[in-house]
Write a structure and sequence with these properties.
Elements: H1 2-23, H2 27-46, H3 48-56, H4 59-85, H5 89-101, H6 117-140
Helix pairs in contact: 1-2
């Protein structure tokens, strides 16, 4: 009963403001204010206000909202865990099987061209230069 009275008063005040706005020749704004002012009365007439009032003061409704919240939390948590693990169980199993099939044999990592003495000598001198640079940097920092 109180909700209907409050909604009616809000609508009456809104329609009064719309009338004043129309008197000032701002008809588009007045029409928009009147539309907003009629919403509370429309909600009362359709019964939505009674339903909301019954829901707001019902412990069973709040328990239902709590259950819905817990459900949403579980969905979000499982989705996050699934993304971190890389998909569902079937997807992970298929990925492992594909990785085993595509695995490279250990001997395949050796160069396919014949070994020559020239690159080995060049790489040895390059690695010594690289280590000397690293030693210089470490000495510079006192390590």
């Amino acid at each position: 009963m109180i909700a209907e009275t409050v909604c009616s008063a809000v609508s009456a005040a809104g329609l009064g403001i719309a009338a004043i706005t129309a008197y000032r020749r701002r008809f588009l704004t007045a029409a928009r204010i009147a539309a907003y002012a009629l919403v509370p009365v429309g909600l009362v007439m359709t019964g939505i206000v009674d339903w909301l009032a019954d829901t707001a003061f019902s412990p069973m409704a709040w328990a239902g909202f709590g259950v819905l919240g817990a459900s949403w939390l579980l969905f979000a948590t499982t989705r996050t865990v699934e993304r971190r693990r890389g998909g569902t169980r079937k997807e992970r199993k298929a990925a492992r099987a594909a990785a085993r099939r595509e695995a490279v044999a250990p001997t395949a990592s050796a160069p396919s061209l014949g070994a020559s003495s020239r690159p080995a000598a060049g790489s040895a001198s390059r690695s010594e230069d690289d280590f000397s640079d690293i030693e210089a940097i470490l000495k510079k920092h006192g390590i």
